[in-house]
Specification:
- With 428 residues, the protein is of the alpha/beta class.
- It has two domains: 255 residues, Rossmann fold; 156 residues, 2-enoyl-CoA Hydratase, Chain A, domain 1 (Alpha-Beta Complex), CATH 3.90.226.30.
- It is built from 15 helices and 20 strands.
- It has a seven-stranded mixed beta sheet, with helices on both faces. It has a five-stranded parallel beta sheet with strand order 18-17-14-13-19.
- α2 links the parallel β2 and β3.
- α5 runs parallel beside α13.
- The longest helix has 15 residues.
- It is globular.
- It starts with 5 loop residues before the first strand and ends in an 8-residue tail after the last strand.
């Protein structure tokens, strides 16, 4: 049984721990005695309230007499966290956890740790994607979600604008969070083909429809706890928490996220200096600086990603990214057509196009990136050249001078919020 949608929130709300507890308590009342629960949780690349919410869930389940609470990290293809990082993520040591068992990593590329829950047929994929893709794909998930292992699955996740699904949250914590490679590759490439400009910051997207259809195959009942939060100088502020069905909670949360995570500049800038948020320690996730700022950069302009803490391109996918390099979607599609290696790694192909953001056609008829990306980080000049990014030293970036320049926008904690020129007008 899934509880009726419960929760509260708005752009101006600041939920307390007591508020969160009331919402959790109302939602978990449907659980049977001695229930076994698996919580799917975010990894360290997400800045959210899991360290507050997970202890509340643990305490409320213990009070109900639940028998087990384990956690599975929805890390997608990211590198696993250390034990210390996982314990920090769930609030261990800072709060009472009366009911907590194992903390599991997800290994997307280990067939022995995956199960298949049927397939999405090519006709289903075509219908769900609006005809953008029409290939059959197996629905593979972490085997810990197999029938009989748990009585309920909880999804503890935050909602922010996202380049692949439109908004993070809900079913995205299954696909790609704890999914196998095939659907992970398909959804990322689908997001790229739908184009980042028409996906990010929109709730109803081709990728959303595909991942929600796939999530319908999860055998255990799923209760989503979907939150919206922002980081201020005073700490983390939770604007909303919704509990219930994956579809309903993410849409309720996205309505708030679209107000607190989207900023409007009223113009485009020739130059944007992105001070990359420290949660992003490699460009696989740090590419969000381009995803979320590309819409406000002028054609022929420049994005400077300033990230002294960023040490690499990608632990998991670095070899392929360095081999093929970032390029506009039109060029990446050609590379995919000519490369069986990229055909088998469409999530990487999508990343190449997403970071480049968009192309433009020159007077000579060539497609080139709409703006230049310069990386100021711990990544070497040689690697930057291989991935087709410009390089500069961190000490060569004069941030204070950039702040004084009316044609340069300096963005703090880049990668968190989505920047657009103006709100989209209703067609009504």
């Amino acid at each position: 049984m899934i509880p009726t949608l419960a929760g509260a929130g708005s752009a101006t709300t600041d939920l307390t721990a007591a508020d969160l507890r009331r919402i959790v308590r109302d939602a978990v009342r449907v659980l049977p005695p001695r229930a076994r629960v698996l919580a799917v949780i975010p990894d360290k690349t997400r800045d959210d309230n899991t360290d507050i919410l997970f202890p509340i869930v643990s305490q409320e389940l213990a009070a109900l007499g639940a028998s087990r609470l384990d956690a599975l990290v929805a890390q997608g293809t990211h590198a696993p966290m250390t034990d210390a990082e996982k314990r920090l993520k769930i609030g261990a040591g800072a709060a009472d956890l009366p009911l907590v068992g194992e903390l599991y990593d997800h290994h997307w590329d280990r067939a022995s740790e995956l199960m298949t829950l049927g397939t999405l047929t090519s006709s289903e994929v075509s219908s769900l994607s609006g005809g953008i893709m029409d290939r059959e794909v197996p629905v593979q998930l972490n085997a810990r979600l197999a029938p009989g292992n748990y009585d309920y699955v909880f999804v503890l996740g935050a909602t922010v604008p996202h380049e692949v699904a439109g908004f993070a949250g809900g079913a995205k914590y299954f696909f790609p969070g704890v999914a196998g490679p095939e659907l992970t590759h398909l959804t990322h490439w689908l997001g790229a083909l739908a184009t980042i400009e028409h996906v990010i910051g929109r709730i109803e997207t081709p990728t959303r429809r595909v991942i929600e259809a796939a999530a319908d195959r999860v055998p255990a009942p799923v209760i989503a706890f979907t939150s919206v939060s922002t980081r201020t100088n005073a700490g983390l502020r939770t604007h909303g928490l919704f509990a219930g069905d994956c579809r309903e909670t993410v849409r309720s949360a996205a309505a708030i996220s679209s107000q607190v995570h989207v900023r409007y500049t009223g113009r485009r800038y020739p130059r944007v200096v992105a001070l990359l948020d420290e949660h992003y320690d490699e460009l696989w996730v740090g590419g969000k600086a381009s995803y979320k700022l590309g819409g406000i950069i002028e054609d022929g302009g420049e994005l400077v990603i300033y990230a002294p803490h960023l040490t690499g391109i990608s632990t998991t996918h670095g070899r392929l990214i360095e081999k093929y390099g970032y390029a506009p979607l039109e060029q990446v599609r050609e590379m995919v057509e000519d490369s069986d290696e990229l055909k088998a790694n469409l999530a990487v192909a999508a990343h190449l196009a997403h970071v480049s953001y968009a192309g433009r056609v020159t007077a000579e008829g060539r497609v080139e990136p709409r703006y230049r990306i310069t990386l100021a980080s711990a990544v070497s000049e040689e690697v930057c050249r291989r991935v087709r990014l410009a390089f500069t030293r961190c000490d060569a970036v004069d941030i204070e001078a950039a702040r004084r320049d009316p044609d340069t926008l300096v963005v703090e904690h880049a990668g968190r919020d989505l920047y657009l020129v103006a709100p989209e007008r209703s067609s009504a």
